[in-house]
Every structure is written in C-alpha cells, then in structure tokens.
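Recall the central idea of this unit: under ordinary conditions, the amino acid sequence of a chain determines the structure it adopts. In this exercise we apply that idea directly, starting from the sequence alone.
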Amino acid sequence: MELQKIFLIFLVAQLALTSSERLFHSRDRSDIQARAQNKAESILTREGAQNYLQKYGWIEPVHWDSMPFRGVPATSEENVAPPDISILLNEGESSPSTLPVTAPHPKPTLNPRFIGALRRFQEANGLRVTGELDEATREAMNAPRCGVPDQKVTQLEKSKDSDNLSNEEGHPTHVAQTAPTVSDAKSNGRLALSQHVRKKRSHLLKAGKKKGAFSKPTIKWRLLGEGYSIWLSINQQRSILSRAFRMWSEVVPLNFEEDTDSPAHLIDIKLGFGTRRHLGCSQLFDGMGREFAHAWQLGDIHFDDDEHFVPPNSDQGISLLKVASHEIGHVLGLSHMNEASSVMQPSYIPANSRMELDVVDRKAIQRIYGRCSGPFNTIFDWVHQERGSLVFHTYFFRKSWYWKYENRNNRTRYRDPRRLANGWKGIPSSDIDGFLHIWTQNLTCFFKGTQYWRYDNENDRAYIADPEKIAYPRLISDGFPGINGPIDTAFYDIRDNNIYFFQGRNVTAFSVAQHKVLLGYPKSISEVFPPWISGDHPLSDLDAAYYSFTHETVFFIKETNVWRMAGHKGPQDIPPNSLLPRQLINELWLDICDVHPTMLTVPRR
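Accordingly, the structure predicted from this sequence is:
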C-alpha cells in the first residue's frame, strides 16, 4: 500500500509539471526554442475583435483592480497536501470511440454596443473611424500591448458599489469561484502571499491621502525568486527593474527600495515573470505576441515570459525597461494615455536606451503625488570651457548629491541626482556651504566650514596647489581678508564686481578690485536687499544665493522658498536690489527629486 501511494504522488507531480508553467529550465536553455510556437491567437474576426474590446474595457469599463486573485482558491496554509492522495484520482471508464464527442459551439452573437466600441477604439488609436474591422484595426489589435484594460472603473465608481464588491477586510465576497485544476495545485504555495496582497491593497486604498496613492514616502519592491525570466540574467533583471523604478522616483517625492530580506508581507510591490497561468494570478497570459505584462494599482506586476524581453540597448525583442516603467505607472495609479510619446501608451512602441518619462507622464503622476521639494546647500551657475566655447550649467547641491539642471528644457539632466564625490573631484563630499565663481578671473571656489577649495575648471578637479603655488584647502580669512568662516552662502555680483558673503542676519560686501571688505559692512541683509512687499523676506540664514545667467538676476533661497532680486532693467517703481515676492522652488525649477541610494549610479557628469 505504501509503495502504491508513493507511485500516485509521483504521478500527480508529473501531471502538475506538464500542465502548468515551468519554474526551472534546461541548463543549455534548449527548451526556450519551443516558446516560438506558443503564440497568442491573432484577432481576425469580428467575434475576436469583440472579445478584445470587451476585455480592455471598450464595451464596458472593467473592475480591473478587484480582479488579480478573483477565482483563485484560498488556502489557510501553504503547500497543504491531502491526507490521502488517492482521493484526487478516479478510475477512468472505457469508451468505444477513441476521440471524445463534443457538441459544436454556438456562434457568439455580437454585442449591440460593438460598433460604437470599435469606433471609439479606432478614434483613440488615430485610425480612420469606420466601425469596420479593417486591416489597420486588426493590426492595432494584434500589436504588443499591456494587459491592463484601457477603460477601467474609477476609484469613485468603485467606492459607490464597494459594499457589493468587498467586505471590510477587502476580500471579494460576490465573485465566481472556479474549480481548482491540476495546475492550480502548483500555484497554491503562493496563495498566502496573494491573500496578503489583496488585504494590503484594500488597506492602502483606504489609508492613502488620495484614492489610489501610496501613503508613505518609501516603497519596497522585490523580484520574486520563483518568478525569474529565462531571457535575462537575474542581475540584469534586477538592474533594469531598479532603473525603471528610479525613473518615477526622479519626478515625484517617492523613494523605491529593493528589499530582498524582509518578510513578504512587508514588500509593497512584488514583481515576477511567468507564462499562461502564473504566480497565483487569475488572469492568464496569452502566449507570445500580444500581452506582455499586467499590473494592479498599489499591487504587483507580472510579466509574460513567453515574450522575448531584452535590455535597453538591444534592437531586438521587447524592452524590459519600457514595459516595467509602464507597469510601475499603473501600480502608482496611472491609467493608459493615448499619447504616442507617453510611457503609459497601451501599445508597445520601441524606445532607445535613453528612454525617459514624457512631460505628460510627469504631470499626470504629479497630480497624484505632488512635486518634489526640499532645501539645498548650494545652487550656482558654473561657467567653463566646453568644445572651445564658454558655456554655463546650473547645479543644485543637497547633502552628498547633486543635480545638473537643463534650463532650456526646464528639467534636470537624465538620470540625476549623482554623488557629489564622483562628479566634483577633490572638494568635500557633502554639505557644501557656498560656491563662488568670478568667471572674468577664472576663479572658482567651494566653501565649507572655515575653509575653501579652489577649483581647476580646465581639469575638472580641486587644486592641491594652484598656479601661484598656494596650497588648498585654505582658510577663508587668508583668501578673503576680513571674512571669517563659516558662511551661509556667497555670490559674485557681476554688476558692481563685489562678492557678497552671508552669515546669519548679516551680509558683507568684499571688493574684488581692492581685495578687501567695503567700508560700512557688515550690514543687515534686509538693509542691502530690502523687501518690495513688507514682511516678505528671508531675513537670515540663507541656504543659497546665486546669479542666474538664464534669468539674468540674483536668487535668494531659503528652505523651500526663493526670492528674485529686482534688477536695474526692471519696472521703475521697484527699487533695484529689492526682493520680489517669494515663490516656491518647485514652481521655478522642476523635478529636483531625491532617489534612494540603492538606485543611484555614478557616471561622470
């Protein structure tokens, strides 16, 4: 009897392995070749088009975010085996026919709303609106795309009928249950995580400051060990996913941290690759050729590993970076946008290795999470030689990180911030107090504490000893007699050839021509730079002050506010040097965002 049970257990295990997705593959990956035959069924008929329009919400919006585990049988424990495996097996009956006799399937009828849905789909995809399933429409429907519906039930609509969809714990109550299959048995080991994710998602939707928004600044993610792709190495997969998360972190005040150690219930976003029935999910993938992934708001991301995923620099296959960036957008709360330049475009459009978020993506996600904001240690324009010409770039320093700002595009450089120590050789690696650049004399200095470092613009590093044989770092009082550090900030005013050093409530003017402090200084900041509107003034303890070549004026920065100094070319009723009403820094300079240290790279600037 024991031998018989062992044989039965072995037989069921073999059935499970042959009828569900494989977790492990041949060492030489020869089994991957079979994937080319596992293709998604093409949409050629009106019935197929109707199924497409129904699935993606064109006929009726889909309750997508309540569907990830709908119909998946729940278990109280993981990998629970029945006490007697023989109860799962029944003796078959013999039949005189070698093939089962099946009744013909009735031809599906078209939904009355089919034509209207088809016309809306054509219009949204920039096709000629005919209401007919023409060749261009078939091509659009068969294009690689995201599995998330284009038209979903909104959070407001969900909240109105939530009593019919879920109980207090966020579990679906009125859902159709499907009978477990042999392939389901393999997935049950993952259901404990699935049940937790379902409860967690409901909690986050209720607790978020906005419906559908994460309510905490740091989001943890993990690539599941049972969900690796066969197409890329594990390190490649993690690196590409990290880069995709970073793209969103660069435009909103969210940090994404890869966490490979914490218990599963502490991970906010779990990612994995699978085929057909996969990772305990109720939504089956369709094979190679159409759906490449799907995701849930505040939930998980699944990739169809029948697709050939490739790194960003490949001109073959499907870019994992672009797909992952798109699906993360869904998790954060974005729906599809029919903008060709948007990463949230539902259909797959190849992208180059410098793929980044479009302005429509940035604005959409910032409507949910707001803009990044925060104080800076130093802000300045650096003038230097580049390809034989004098050019300037604007830099923002915060602690040990810096951003290069592209004034023409009104945004930070691609893949910033970067480590200060790697971009500016030889200066202190964090907390710079001030920057000074007298570009007419090619004198560039960084200040910290009671010392300053002279910078070699040509060789892009701090001097150890300058051409005059002066060693650095040097005391501020030695280089600028009458100025004792530390300082809050400083700037060079090209209009009067003076350096202004700020300390507390005071400012001291230092003449470059005379190399000494001007008579009558120090003075209060509000006396030298008075407010145009009474009471609207930083008064003391500035974070930064700098002359902007882009705006042709001086900015005073404190915490999250900025004041613009009125110039000589301004309106006559505004006295020169007066400070105009404050603005928020993130209204003037966009998308200067922190990124979690685990996601930072350090290429040269």
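The first helix runs from residue 2 to 19.
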